[in-house]
């Protein structure tokens, strides 16, 4: 999957870093909670537009996606963590 998109594992990890519920991610990405839930539970893969909206919501909140494994960056208040793309 291209880096500009998002996997279900990355979504769950990013929500965990931000302490976001699925409802909060849905609101921040202008998507329905069912879209987030179905994606993270492996029931469906959202359209590229919806995946991009989720990723952009995380990035706006300070999450950084890298090729390495999921880790937290050294961060100051308001900065997000680092999520791997494996």
TrEMBL record:
Ranges for the HTH cro/C1-type domain? 12-65
The record's listing under InterPro entries reads: Cro/C1-type_HTH (IPR001387), Lambda_DNA-bd_dom_sf (IPR010982)
> Which species?
Mesorhizobium tamadayense
Q: Which Gene3D superfamilies match?
A: lambda repressor-like DNA-binding domains
Cross-referenced SMART domains: HTH_XRE
Enumerate the GO terms in the molecular function aspect: DNA binding
Source species, domain of life = Bacteria
PROSITE patterns, per the entry: HTH_CROC1
- What is this protein identified as? XRE family transcriptional regulator
| Family annotation (SUPFAM superfamilies) | lambda repressor-like DNA-binding domains (SSF47413)
């Amino acid at each position: 999957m291209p880096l500009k998109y998002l996997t279900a594992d990355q979504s769950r990890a990013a929500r965990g870093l931000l302490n976001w519920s699925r409802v909060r991610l849905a609101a921040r990405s202008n998507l329905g909670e069912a879209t987030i839930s179905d994606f993270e539970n492996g029931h469906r893969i959202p359209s590229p537009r919806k995946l991009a909206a989720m990723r952009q919501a995380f990035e706006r909140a300070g999450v950084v996606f890298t090729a390495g494994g999921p880790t937290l960056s050294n961060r100051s208040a308001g900065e997000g963590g680092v999520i791997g793309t494996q």
